[in-house]
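Recap quiz, item 2
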Amino acid sequence: MRGWFARLASTLFVLSLLVAKAHGADTSSQIARGEYLARASDCEVCHTAPGGTPFAGGRPFKLPGIGTIYSTNLTPDRATGVGDYTDAQFARAVRRGVGRGWKHLYPVMPYTSYAYLSADDTAAIFAWLKTLRPVTATIPANDVGFPYNIRAAMIGWNLLYRPSAGRRDDPSRSAAWNQGRWLVEGPGHCAECHTPRNMLYAKSSSQPYAGGQAEEWDAYNISSDPESGIGGWSDESLFAYLHTGHADGHGTASGPMADVISHGVRYMTDEDVHAMITYLRTLPQQRTNVITDRVSPERLARIGTPTEGNGARLFAGACAGCHLTDGTGRQVPYATLWGARTVGLPGGRNLVQVILHGSALETSMGRIAMPQVGDEYSDRDIADIANYVIGHFGNRAGTVTPQAVQAALANGD
Amino acid sequence: MSVSRRTLLGGLGGLVLAVQMPPRRARATGTIVEDVTTPFSPNAFIRIDERGVVTFIMRNVEMGQGIYTGATLLMAEELDLDPETVQLEAAPPDVAYVDKDMGTQATGGSTSTMGEWVLLRKAAATARVLLVQAAATRWGVDPAACRTEAGVIHHDASGRAVGYGEVAAEAGRLPVPPDVSLRPPSAFRLIGRSHHRLDSPAKVHATAQFGIDARVDGMKFATVAACPVMGGTLVHVNEGAARAVSGVVDILRLPNAVCVVGSTTWAAQMGLKAAAPEWNAGENAHVDTALVYRQLHDGAAQPERGIVAQEKGDAHAAVAGAHRQYAATYQQPLLAHATMEPVNCTVHVTPDRCDIWVGTQVPLRARDSAARITGLAADQVHLHNMYIGGGFGRRLEHEYVEQAVQFARQVPYPLKIVWSREEDITLDRFRPAYVDQIAAGLSSHGNIVGVTHRIVGPAVVARWAPEGLMPNGMDGDLLAAAADVPYDFRASYLDFVRRETPGVVTAWWRGVGGTRGLFVMESFIDELAAVAGRDPIEFRRHHLKNDARAIGVLDLASDKANWSQPMPKGSGRGVAVQFLFGSYLATIMDVKVDDDGSVRVLRAVVAVDCGRLVNPDQVRSQIEGGLMFGIGAALFNEITLDHGRVQQRNFNRYRVLRMNEAPVIEVHLVESDADPGGIGETGTAAAAPALANALAAATGRRYRRLPLLGKQELDV
Amino acid sequence: MYDIQINGDVHSVDVPGDTPLLWVLRDVLGMTGTKFGCGIAQCGVCTVHLDGQPVRSCSLPVAAIGTHPVTTIEGIGSDALGQAVQKAWIDLDVVQCGYCQPGQIMSAVALLKTNPHPEDSDIDMAMSGNICRCGTYQRIRAAIRSAAGA
Ligand code: FES
Ligand code: FES
């Protein structure tokens, strides 16, 4: 094994030297491209601790049944960051999941997707990262249980689910489709969250994009199924959602998706976003039971404002100030609720997350944030608010229990 | 008058922001007008100019309690003026305005009306005597033959009349009489009748000037972050990032805080975010809520006596020998003030003067601190006291003024500092947490034969006014509703085990000792009634036997609330009776606990005997507001600490009662000719015990820990 | 540079687009009637009208305003409903410290615009986004009822 990787690595090393040389005259454009790719790859989201310096790492990832893994420091600090890495070492980590000193990275790092990046691409990203201010940030040691604490076990995992080599363009498809596929499957690593994972934490090959998990959040079905996927969305809606984090009638991105848009997608060119949509449209339909009712503001206005019940009262106090009781949002479009999948699913998993932890989206108008609802609301209160929202805005009977809220709180801390 | 003109003038000088308003319109916009050129200023409270413009100087600051209106009524009564025609000014810092009870110039402790009741009427009566004397001298008539009405002196026999302004200069030259007589209550035209608040129009039209509204030429906007752990220090500020934010002007530092100055508050806020200050948390980094409570419960368990504050008979023996013993432990949390107007202060320091625009309950202290910090003389510091958007005790602290002056002296321009709400809550000075242990013995008839009570917590007065500590080390504020009760216990014992709260500064909070003590006492009495199998009101009445005013309010409330009518299942009715701040209250609250466990406060009925009423509708208003404030705190609020940091940062985590949670409140006033008592804090004190007792009635279990909707197990 | 229409006048302000309207009003234009309380859309003291709808100015970036007209407490008295509400507030002595009241009045006027004769439960629901620390809720309810009857 070692020999194989070493050979590959040294080849890559030589290659990257050549690439660097070839592009040496043009570092500024290489750096610009690197920044764009780093955005498209959402490096910042994972490599920033909550409230910490961007790219300085330390964000914890709790993997159910596995343990807690911390992202690394990507700033060019020599001691604690990537300052001492070579291009080849960096490329190997990003594309192969093999860190320095032959440490096999855990598959939270989406190297199976990043394998789509070329050595050129990773060199550009690295060139840009090296322009950042070095931050000394010692990352906590990963806290994972057996057998995952044996990094060598990842070798076996990699044998099974090893990153595939970059796919060739499909000449029967348009350039946009091919570019979209590259973005979605590669740097965008959409499948990492939106495809279910199997017992060994690998992406399911039978149900691509049928919906998965992103930490404590549900990542929705984004296959082209018209009911449970995004097949029913217009191109305009998809574009607006990806580009701004919000589409009327579909709500506003929250949680990890808000991060992805805030730090990544919103920086992408219109052409690239359209290319992604072109590709997403062709994903095979995956019918799942994530089917919501489309409740229009007209209907909500007709129903009027319920005044009875704990959930309705709490909503009027803490939430309606921005969302309004018909869900049309009081001031910025981001506050609209109607049509959002999150308010339409009876289990309310993401809804509870938003209520408990709040959400924030970076937009061209600045940061649009929803504050968390606080400690002084009981688990029952939160469940009541969630069930009220699901009933009123989603036209479904919410099934959120105080126990579920308690569990979400416990996991979130 | 005890206050001489000289004392008043000694404290003024310098700035004259002469805002001359036409008469005949109530002036209460809250901006200070320091005009000492007025010909007639017989004392520190009244000025009349030659045009007849009457200005009353408000010794107590207006923070919602309606004192501007009350004080004006008192003076207008004796001076025969239409209150609407008077200009009002906030008093500058001056020893002339020191409140004897508070030991400094301070508004708090529900003392305003009590303190002003005689003082201000005498001030006005003195002025009237002088004005009448001046007119009588001019006309060559007997002053006794003159009368006054609506700012005019009449001599009916000759049909002559002259306005106050016209004789102001002459009156100003007359010697101030040593004493004057006051109008008998039978002759009151204003006192005792509801009068609209004089500050309403300005507040409704939003022309009222709060501290946060101060605008000074050349002013820049700033916001601050201090180390979130008390005692910690500033380690690093990302200056480059902060300066890169559009609109950021300056970054100022103190050993424990950073201030970002910008062209708008927003720019300053964004700059502060980018500055991402790093802290050395210091020695309080280990403090958490569990530690706070553990220390209190340890104090409760200590075998040695604490500071013995009351000993009547042998209470321990009485309890031990009683037919039945009963004991309970109560726990109360740290609380923030969370006034609607966040902490703010505007300061301009130049080489020879310092101007401060701020809402403060302690202007003298704030001024003297500013003088100390800037090295200026006290009379070079000019403090302009503004309307306060909610005090509740927060503005009895002035550390934020000190901080603002320390930052402002680093820059040449006027600096307006507005704390974020997060800063306002996390860097508040908190109502302390307490643990009370209380035991009683009951006779075979179910009567109380003795009570022993231990209070464990800090002595706020030891920091705020050390000279106020009693010789034995007792904080007298803690006696309220604990030793000073309307009940007649045959034997009682109270000791205090002092435990200062680690990691925070503790401070006064609306209702002070009364709010603290009443929750314990009135909850415990309720428990005793239940143990004795007696009706809570009958049980109270029995033990109140010597206090007719207490029984009076209890009976009135019980009657108005239909106490004897049974409540439906899942609902409960609770009562609390009190004598605090010189006023009696009985409060009955109805609650409903829904099947899903959510609690609704339906109604509160309050009977009040606060002595003579100055402005009855404002008494009602204070009871309503005080109750709402207390209900919210009792149901929801607790400040918790983790690694020395306060975890509640804004209203999303420090929950405030909202309108759809607010009960209907009925206030019934008792006519009385006793001297007026304080009222602003009484409703707040009543809320927690009445609610806890109502919840107990509804659910059948006792609520011994605040907040009531938190977990009920004590943190022993 | 943003041109915003406030109480009928157009004001040009030179601030970053993410600056919330609240701070444009208070700091740039000196219109301090609109207050700051929480900055996170939880308290309602910063309420103004945008197109007649009550909005939280602390959470409304100036870039999002466009040509929609803004009304603040300084301008609310220029129509009959605003006057009626302000008069009811004075007649019933609603205010205590008064700090929350500009926001309360803005929310109340907006409610009565869409619902001229609200039930108590409508009042409670519409006004529950506005916190009053002094606890003037009972009088706010009464004043809205009185203004609705007027
Ligand atoms: S300041 Fe805007 S809602 Fe509180
Ligand atoms: S009147 Fe003081 S906050 Fe409402």
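The longest strand of chain C covers residues 2-6.
The mean pLDDT of chain C is 96.
End of item.
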